[in-house]
Amino acid sequence: MAEAQSDRMIYTQSIKVGSTYKNPWGDGDIPSKRAAIYFLTESNLSNVPGEEELNKTLPVHKLCPEVSRPPDKGIRITWIGHASVLVQFDGYSILADPIFSYRCSPLSFAGPKRYRPSPCTVDELPNIDAVCISHNHYDHLDVQTVQDLNVRFPNINWFVPAGLKDWMSQTGVTKNVSEYEWWGEKEISKTANDKTTIMKFVFTPTKHWCNRGVFDRNRVLWGSWTMIGPRYRVYFGGDTAYCKGFKEIGHKYGPFDLAAIPIGAYEPRKTMEKQHVNPEEAVKIHQDVKAKKSLGIHWGTFVLTYEYYLDPPKKLKEALLAAGIPEEDFFTLDHGESRLIIPDPEMTPRL
Questions:
Q1: CA distance 116 to 138
Q2: Residue 280: CA atoms inside 13 Å, Cβ hemisphere, count?
Q3: What would the pLDDT profile of 204-254 be if each residue is shown by its tens digit?
Q4: Cα–Cα distance between 86 and 336 in angstroms, integer?
Q5: Binding residues for Zn(2+) 2, per the UniProt record (predicted)?
Q6: Which residue ranges form the domains of the chain, and what is each CATH number?
């Protein structure tokens, strides 16, 4: 088992001062007002074209019939768009950072809007066992999506960062909500055909920040999720800058059979380097967490930053080439597209 590795490494803990969480990586609070001004004065080079060209370069697919149930063998991952993924393995179907709304904004009439539609609605999803939330930014936590999921799946398990449980309750979600500091964990189980399967969820570090309003900055923690089943391990990176926490995650829980790692929303670099990784740093995360395969997420859906809209997968391929990593080991998908990963059977089993 990976847990049997030497635990001599000192694992970074989240820091809370009063009611506010702080990044423990020595970079202070982010982003600064100066960085925000710099961002607004830079040129937006995203250059998103019209729908006809988008349909060619970034198509959207309906979910394949196979997602109706988890695979008997391997891990199926489906890119819903931006950081939203559906991952299915070891008998479970898990959503991470789901957003199905048109805008990622506190306002219904303003704020970043989709330039690629969601490939499905909440009603078109298969049965969902759990939802993992990495942090409370609007492009990762959407109130309408949360409410719709709660209505459709009233017994779903919600895994959220410390400080978010009250918001969930105010939103109408009062059942099966668990919140965690870094390295906190919980197991859930389900029984089918007289066989009980256990899935462990661990809240793991990232380097980021949180807020949804003017006066709630960093009142909620941020992080990533490690999911450990009886056969396979999956890592979901959420949204992050680069930090040493990824080596800690890889040491404690790696290797991972599959990881979902952000690759977009990174320009202008002077502003974004302390909150979002670029593709080169995403490759370092892939290596640090010891992922056998990775999916690039956090791109291609909302214009949040200023890189050309197709640059994240292009730059990812360049970074993989420079690192000597095969392209098939760190890939991207179209919206709604699924891929079945079947790890090496001699490497995967963990009792």
A1: 17
A2: 4
A3: 999 999 999 989 999 999 999 999 999 999 999 999 999 999 999 999 999
A4: 10
A5: 139-140, 239, 298
A6: 66-340 (3.60.15.10)
What residue has token string 């395969």? 293
Annotated binding site: 135, 137-140, 208, 239, 276, 298
Question: What is the three-state SS of the chain?
Answer: CHHHCCCCCCCCCCEEECCEEECCCCCCCCCCHHHHHHHHHCCCCCCCCCHHHHHHHCCECCCCHHHHCCCCCCEEEEEEECCEEEEEECCEEEEECCCCCCECCCCCCCCCEECCCCCCCHHHCCCCCEEECCCCCCCCCCHHHHHHHHHHCCCCEEEEECCCHHHHHHHCCCCCEEEECCCCEEEEEEEECCEEEEEEEEEECCECCCCCCCCCCCCCCCCEEEEECCCCEEEECCCCECCCHHHHHHHHHCCECEEEEECCCCCCHHHHCCCCCCHHHHHHHHHHCCECCEEEECCCCECCCCCCCCHHHHHHHHHHHHHCCCHHHEECCCECCEEEECCCCCCCCCC
184-215 residue pLDDT tens: 999 999 998 889 999 999 999 999 999 999 89
User: CA angle, 72 as apex, 70 and 77 as ends, to 5°?
Assistant: 40
For the beta sheet containing 177-180, the strands, ordered from the edge strand earlier in sequence to the opposite edge, are 177-180, 157-161, 130-132, 92-96, 84-89, 75-81, 338-341
Render pLDDT for 120-133 as a digit per residue (tens, 0 to 9).
Answer: 999 999 999 999 99
For the record, the structure tokens of 244 come out as: 């040493």
